[in-house]
Amino acid sequence: MIRIVALTPAGKQLAERLQAEWPEANKFEVRVDYKPKPFAESVQSAFQNGDWLMFICATGIVMRTLAPVIQDKYQDPPVLVLDEEGKFVIPLLSGHEGGANEWGAQVANRLGAQLVMTTAKPYLNPIYTLGMGCERHCPLAFLESLMLEALAQKGLTPSDIHSLNSIDIKADETHLIALAEKYNWNFNTYSAQELVPMEALLSTKSDYIYNTVGVYGVAESAALLAAQNETGIDPELVLNKIKNAKATVAVARGFVET
Fold first, then answer.
1. Domain boundary assignment for the chain
2. CATH architecture label of 2-120
3. Which segments constitute the Cobalamin synthesis G N-terminal domain (predicted)?
């Protein structure tokens, strides 16, 4: 569940706007909590329950309230703080590991707000790229369902994605091309030689894939290289590769200045 906590009338208005516009509302219940009572107990309970929390109030209030229940960045749910005018979005807790940085970037983009990311790369906007590998003549349904699952895991939508990417032996893969066309993405392919420099950033390495195509992982390598090409800086994996019976997909990210 996503909980948007507001303490002022202006904050409540912003919260209701976000609730109405949030594209993932069909996957996550989005609830507005206006002046919840008792405040500390309600917020702490939601935090311990693993709810994603968005506060429209002062940062100090949030920190004082959550301090008794904070554990670590690997267990705590993501927490954002916004000002009531919706000008600034701060990923406060579980920025990278918990997904608050990506979530904050999405909220900032929809509001036209400034993302204040204090963990790393402040004042930059993310560029998300998809990498996919698949069996020859993989049906579109396998590709699309896996892609949508990957995006849902990170709270992303197809409109957040810049491009679809793979290895050059898939340049004529009919349904990869069809998937890119359906969502208006560029479809890029790269040679094994071009993908090799991404090896150090891979989450896992498959000797089987290496012996077959010359790189240790197609989906992650292609996503990473595309993000690097688009931003000119070192990329990072947002989602390590996941797979179904016929395909693999990974999500990478780079940053550009606003």
1. 2-120, 125-257
2. 3-Layer(aba) Sandwich (3.40)
3. 43-120
- pLDDT tens digit at each of 258 positions of the chain: 889 999 999 999 999 998 887 755 445 688 899 999 999 999 999 999 999 999 999 989 999 999 898 887 667 888 999 999 988 998 888 655 557 788 888 888 788 888 887 655 546 678 999 999 999 999 999 999 999 999 998 888 999 999 999 999 999 999 999 999 999 999 999 999 999 999 989 998 989 889 989 899 999 999 999 999 998 888 889 899 999 999 999 999 988 865
Is residue 238 within 8 A of residue 155, CB to CB? The reply is no
Q: What type of residue sits at position 12? A: K
Phi (first) and psi of residue 75, to 5 degrees:
-110, -30
Strands of the 88-93 sheet, one edge to the other: 30-34, 2-6, 52-56, 79-82, 88-93, 114-115
Q: Which helix (H) or strand (E) holds 257?
A: strand 247-257
Q: Extract the tokens encoding 207.
A: 């000797």
| Unique residue bearing structure tokens 């709810």 | 51
For 101, the token pair is 């940085």
Alpha-carbon gap, residue 161 to 209, rounded angstroms: 25
Instruction: Tell me the Cα Rg of the chain.
Output: 20
Q: How far apart are CA 177 and CA 98, in angstroms?
A: 32
